[in-house]
Specification:
With about 220 residues, the chain is of the alpha+beta class. The chain contains 4 helices and 8 strands, in the order αβββαββαβββα.
Length: about 220
Amino acid sequence: MTPRAKTVIRVIVKVFSWLLVVGGVCAIAFGIYVQDILDKTYRIQPLELEADLSKAGEYTGTWNQTHDSSFGATIRLVLDREQGEAELDTVRELLEGLRARVRFEDAEGSLVAEAEIKASDISSAELSSSADVVELCYVSSGKGRDKGLHNVFLVVESPAEGLRDVKHRLEGSFMICGLEYAAAFVPMLLGVLSTVAGIILAIIIYVVNRNRRRRALRV
């Protein structure tokens, strides 16, 4: 191989190593950016609904769909218990008998998603605990992709008598699946691997060039 060809190969490998590093850093930055969006999306409180689960009736509110994606909602019950009350009653005792239905409609009145809330469907671990936040239900649908306000209708068919003297409220958050988190994790993983590979290749190139210069000086 001619000296010129060797020089060209060394330049190509050197440029490739830098591309690996730069591309890796960009991929890591993109993954962090996506992760930050997902974290902010999860922290949003899109549900505005005042309801008393200790009383039968229909309650209406809104859900603010802030992104164009398939509809997914998590509805939680938050118990505002006074200090010391947390040990008195378990979730099972407070929610015993609860049965309700929740329905989401878009601005045109078309059904987006609906779900049933039953105390018996709540995980046994939460039912036997004295937690102050309880996951009531998960609602998902391929509809409702448009941004904007959705109407929420909650019908309490059988109230939870145990909540009569306990302050409580409903909160909601966007349901984010593993595939969406993978969109952040995979670029970061590939970025780390690319950056490490580029750095190792750059070190190899440096060592080879240093040895080549030493041999040239000896000659």
